[in-house]
Amino acid sequence: MNFSFISGEAARASGELLVIPLFDGETGDKPPAPLAGANSALEGRLLTAATQEGFKGKSDQTFVVHSLGRLEAERVVLLGLGSRARYTPEVLRLAAGRAAKTAQRLKARTLVFAVPETQDTPAALRAVVEGLELGAYRFERYKSSAKEDKNAPKLTTVRLALPGGVEKTKEHDQAVALGQRVAESTNWARDLVNEPPNVVNPEHLARAAQEMGREAGLKVTVGNRKEIERLKMGMFLAVAQGSVNEPKLIHVEYTPKNARHAKNPPVALVGKAITFDSGGLSLKPTDSMVDMKTDMAGSAAVLGAMRVIATLKPPFPVHAFIGACENMPSGTAYRPGDILTSRLGKTVEVTNTDAEGRLVLGDILTWATEHKPAAIIDLATLTGACVVALGNYIVGAFGDHDPTVYDVLESAHTAGEEMWRMPISELQKDALRSEVADMKNSGERWGGSINAALFLKEFVGDTPWVHLDIAGPSTSPKERGYLGKGGTGVGVRTLVEYVRRRTNQLEGSEAAEAPAPKPARGGRAKG
Fold it and tell me: Distance (Å, rounded) from C-alpha 367 to C-alpha 373?
C-alpha cells in the first residue's frame, strides 16, 4: 500500500472510502470533527442512519453508508473502538483491520483514514498502518478463483488525516514507515506458515532465509546433516532421521558496522522449525495432524523479525538460530525408549517422539548460548497444554530472569501482542526425571507446558532467557480484526519492539556514561 498524509478536513478528502473510527458515545451531541463534517455534508442523515442501525461506537461495530455524491468519498465507514478509557493502539489496529476487509469486500482501491485523537499520535499511526496491511492479507495462492481474480481491484492507496490541531512531523513519517515494514514482514512470515508442507520443507525454509538475508544485507549460513553431526547435536539428528528431507541448520547474523558496537554482546533469537510434525512413531491422530505444517511458525516469526531488525540497525549484534527438520515415522525414525546425547552432553530418554520440538530446541539453544548472548528469546509452537491454559490468542511466557522477562512482556504490550507470564517452578522438575538417563523428554500430562519449559531451561545455563510458547496464537481459527483464518505471524512485532527497547536502553546508558565535554583552553565549561 501507498500511504500519504492529507491536510484539511478528512470529510473533504477524495477517496472511495472515508473511514472514521469512533469511541463509544461519540455519536452523540458533540461528534468529533471528521464525523461532524461528514454528517453535515449528508444533511444529518449519517448520524440518523447510524443511530437507527444501532451503531454507538462499541467495540467491533462497523457501519457503512453510501454518500450519494454528497462527499468526495463514495462511502463512509464508521468503526467502533469501544470505551476510550480502555483504549490501546491494539484496539485501533484491530479496527483498521476491519476497515481493510471492508475495503476488500467493496473492491475499493483508495481510502481516507481519519486518525482518532489519542495521547500518542505516532503510536496510533503505526497501529493504523499495521492494521490495514495485516487486514488486507490473504493467502489464496492455490485457489483457482483467486488466479482468475488477480486483476480485481485491491486497496493500494491510503490517505491519513491527522487529528485536528496536530501538525505532521518527522516522527509521524517514521511511525508510518516502521508500521509498514513490520506489517509487511509479518505477512511474509504468514506466507511461510500458510504454505503447504510439500512446499515448505527444511530446504525451502533455508532458501527463504538466504533470500531474505540477501535482500536485507544479513549474513546467512546454512549447514546440512554433516554440519549438525560435527556440532554433535544428537537430539536434533534423532528427530530428523525419520524423514527423507534433509535437516538444515540456519544461522542469520546482523552485525553493526560500528566496530565498537559490534563488540556489544548479541541478542539471540531462536525459532522452532519443524516443517511438518506427524508425531513420529508416537503418531498424532489425523485431526491433530492436519495443521502441523504450522509447527515452524516460531522460525517464521524470527526470520520475519530479522527482516525488520536489519533496517533498525541496533547498536548490538542480533543472531537468529534455527534447526529445521521434519518429524516423520519410518524405519529409520527415532523410537520411544531411545537415549540421545545432546550437544551439551546431557543424555535424554525418549518417552514420546511427539515431544520433538524441545529436543531440537535444546541443541539449538546450547549452540546459541555458546555465542555468549546478553539474552536469548525462543519462540515455539511447543505444547497443546499452553493452548488449554491460555487459548488461541495469548502467548505463554516462561523465564526466571525477571528483567529480561519484563522487557519481553513490555515489548509485547507495546506491540499489541498479548502474553501472559507462566511459572517455571522447580516443583515440576520431578516429572522429567529418568531412571536410565539424565532426563526424559516428556513428563506427565499435568503442567505440560511448564515441563517443556523446564526441559529447555536445562540448555541455556545462566544466560538470561525467555521462552515464548506460541502454540495457540501462531494460527487463528477465525477472522478477527486484522487476523484471517490461518497463520498470524505472531512474535514478529514483539521481537522488533524488544530490539527497539534494548536499543533505547543501551543508547541511554551510553549517554549517561559519556564524559562531560572538556572546557576550551582559557575558557569555562558551559552549563
Answer: 11
Q: What is residue 283's predicted lDDT score, i.e. its pLDDT?
A: 98
> What is the pLDDT at residue 517?
58
CA distances from 431 to 341, 357, 449 (A): 19, 18, 12
Confirm or reject CATH 3.40.630.10 for domain 181-510, answering yes or no.
Answer: yes
Which residues, 6 or more positions from 209, have their beta carbon under 8 angstroms from its beta carbon?
220, 222, 250, 252, 303, 322
Active site residue 284: yes
Query: Which residues of the chain are modeled with pLDDT < 50?
Result: 520-527
| Residue 45 burial (CB count, 10 A) | 14
Q: Under CATH, what is the fold of the domain 2-140+154-164?
A: Leucine Aminopeptidase, subunit E; domain 1 (3.40.220)
The predicted structure's pLDDT at residue 29: 81
Question: Rounded to whole angstroms, how far apart are CA atoms 423 and 405?
Answer: 12
| Cα distance between residue 424 and residue 355, in whole Å | 18
CA 190, 193, 195, 201 dihedral sign is positive
End-to-end CA distance of the chain: 48
Q: Is 358 a catalytic residue?
A: yes
For 214-243, the pLDDT digits (tens) are 999 999 999 999 999 999 999 999 999 999
Q: Which string of DSSP letters, residue by residue, matches 11-54? A: GGS-SSEEEEEE-TTTTSSS--HHHHHHHHHTTTHHHHHHHHTT
Residues in the chain, overall count? 527
- pLDDT for the residue numbered 516: 59
- Looking at 159, 181, 358, 502, which residue is catalytic? 358
What cell was used for 361?
530446541
Per-residue pLDDT, 148: 63
pLDDT of residue 518: 56
Domain ranges of the chain: 2-140+154-164, 181-510
pTM, two decimal places = 0.95
Comparing CA positions, the residue from 256, 244, 257, 251 lying closest to residue 273 is: 251
